[in-house]
Amino acid sequence: MDCASLLRSYSRYMLILFNLIFAITGIIIICVALSAKAYFHEFDTLMENKVFYVSDLLIVVGVIIFFVSFFGCCGAMKENACMTTTYSALLIVIFLLELAVGISGVLLKNRTEEFLKDKLNETIQDYGPQNNETTELWDTIQRQFHCCGIDNATDWVNFKKDDNHLVPLSCCDIPYGAFKYNCTIEKAYPEGCLMRFGDFVNDNISAIEGVGIGFAIVQLLGIIFACVLSKFIRSDYETV
User: How many CB atoms lie under 10 A from the CB of residue 2?
Assistant: First the structure.
């Protein structure tokens, strides 16, 4: 067997193996995107669906990858030049979509602090019994991330003009069984929600960004294998 035949067989089997891994990565991508949507579900009002758009695009990419991988396996096993060429073109499209997801994640992460600060400043004005949705949102963030206010607890005092320095109960780790507990600046969580919640947002966006760019780079291998195999198949046809 000459070198060209060995390289062709090697490319064929590597492409089949790559597509099995490719199908698994499609499932991983879908799981990461669904997890991000689940994490941010209760904060969708604050995030204005910005993370959801990126996650939705990632889900679409994951589904396409899962189905395209079977197409690639068929092309490699049957050594069909048309199928492998089409597969290469589909991989390039998916590669560009994944890069778009990764770049969107980078851009979104760079604007996270500015965007969150504007939204927190806007919603803190609506905190109170007159707006249950905003009140519940703030209480959830403060309890879950052990933070208080935007930068610190004094944001609440400045907003409420409270001489007693009282802040929302969600700002404090209330002792079990406490009765008529007053949450003050001195007892409140020391860190602001802009930093704590912002870190949470950035960590999840980094996961989306890493999946998008990371798998796009790995996918280049599939494009190379498919192009090499397609070239050998076409050269066989031309010599017949």
Answer: 7
